[in-house]
């Protein structure tokens, strides 16, 4: 009896094709076996003769997929988005609680306030470092494996932060926070997983809903700092290390949700539907080559990166500006909370608008909102309410850039190339944010808060000009 691996269609006999110039082998018969890649099944070549050892299989026998059973894409897309939202909420709680005490822990271990900002910078750089490895893992193994691995690595890094706090070792803290950035990378790349099965009419909306779910973690996370300190004391740990215990639990929970529920894998299903094979491994050069061939993808990439650097540079120095003008700390905290609400709370509306009216109009609108934001904040002076309004608008402009830019990027490149290009986008986005946060303090010292906002406003010019060119070109084609 011939034993075959599970397949959807009967095996197709295929004669072994010897290497060019090699001896001709007669009598060895192989069958092409496959199963549905959407369910994670294997495919390959199996010898009909059970006496032939595994090592005798030809290396050139590449996996071949059979036609899979039809999948209800709309139902699978809804389940995928629900799974991603659940993971974002659970994982975001741990991220929010850790970000608020990371700077305090860095100050405590280093003994200097000047090092407190290194914590956020380390996490941002870590997210940039993990962006490409995670995108390559998604290309090779699917979103489920890549995102689960990201949350798992972040959970281990949270344990490293606790160990650094116990030992009082600042270098270990910075190293752990760099690896901790894998959680941020997983959080960011989840939005792209929502677009794998989405059609053009609903891609931005699906992406925006996953972005919106981050709001829950951003709101709940900081409120766990005090309970975390209580748990830390109960376990004889430093108080500032306590919230990272919640990070371990929430990151592990997000990973488990994705591993169990994100199946069939949306990226593998999309690739199977289009008949795409796994593209060859490509680094930055290959990804940029893909982007250069698609001008709209380049616009999407620039929109995300420039929008992020404008937002981070102004947001990072706003608390310093408000404190220098004697604003109460409660109002400073309220301003940042409203800014975060502006970033995430209206993202579903932004997504619907991008699907209804197009990506480029929303990108243009986002640039004007950013300009209005920096004008309002930059001319606020001692006015707290004007600063608040400026920061809310800053968050809304960032949301327009992220949602519309990411959707434009995703739909402008072939499906097989998307994970690598999306990894480059997140890499540049986080590097731009880290650079903006690092430089903004110097600009604030030299030119003041108004000068900082002026410089940030000038950074909208490249995207504004290119997007306007696309919009005008499209208008000419319609009237031609």
Write the layout of secondary structure elements.
Layout: E1 12-15, E2 29-33, E3 44-47, H1 73-110, H2 118-141, H3 143-167, H4 170-193, H5 203-212, H6 214-220, H7 225-234, H8 242-261, H9 266-274, H10 284-292, H11 295-324, H12 329-344, H13 347-357, H14 359-378, H15 384-411, H16 418-458, H17 461-479
Antiparallel strand pairs: 1-2, 2-3
Helix pairs in contact: 1-4, 1-5, 1-6, 1-8, 2-3, 2-4, 2-16, 3-4, 3-8, 4-5, 4-16, 5-13, 5-15, 6-12, 7-8, 11-12, 11-14, 11-15, 11-16, 11-17, 12-15, 13-14, 13-15, 14-15, 14-16, 14-17, 15-16
Membrane topology: Multi-pass membrane protein
Pfam families: MFS_1 (PF07690)
Protein name: MFS transporter
Describe the protein in words.
Helices cover about 70% and strands about 5% of the residues. With about 475 residues, it is mainly alpha-helical. Residues about 1-70 have low confidence and may be disordered. It starts with 11 loop residues before the first strand and ends with a helix. The radius of gyration is 25 Å and the shape is globular. The protein has helices at about 75-110, 120-140, 145-165, 170-195, 205-210, 215-220, 225-235, 240-260, 265-275, 285-290, 295-325, 330-345, 345-355, 360-380, 385-410, 420-460, 460-480, and strands spanning about 10-15, 30-35, 45. The protein contains 17 helices and three strands. It has two domains: about 75-275, MFS general substrate transporter like domains (Growth Hormone, Chain: A); about 280-480, MFS general substrate transporter like domains (Growth Hormone, Chain: A), CATH 1.20.1250.
